[in-house]
Write a structure and sequence with these properties.
alpha+beta, about 25% helix, 8 strands
Amino acid sequence: MRKIEHIGIAVKDLKASNQLFEKLFGNPPYKEEEVASEGVKTSFFMNGPNKIELLEATNDNSPIAKFLEKKGEGIHHIAFDVEDIEAEMIRLQAEGFILINNVPKKGADNKLVAFLHPKSTNGVLIELCQEIKEK
Ligand code: ZN
């Protein structure tokens, strides 16, 4: 596992939060993207070397809708950059971590992603993400 790739924050209103974080960082999101399979709309900010992802639910069954209902707005996940996501998933599973995904899936911002269940990581949802390289 390498550096923190980004931190994901669950928000109720992406448009309002984009404006808020634009004021905070002094620059607008560099990208907005909907991931229909996850029921989320996302935006990404760069602030120096740090990336922040905002996530809004697009339907009531979205994991973000459930998170907001249970915990309210706030930090939703921490994503780590990995070189080889499948190798990391095998390694972490062997170490006893619970994977939410059995196979990597296509996430936002050109990544293959997989999540570790927070019940195996002290309540913190961990995302593994590997940059998708064009072939
Ligand atoms: Zn993320």
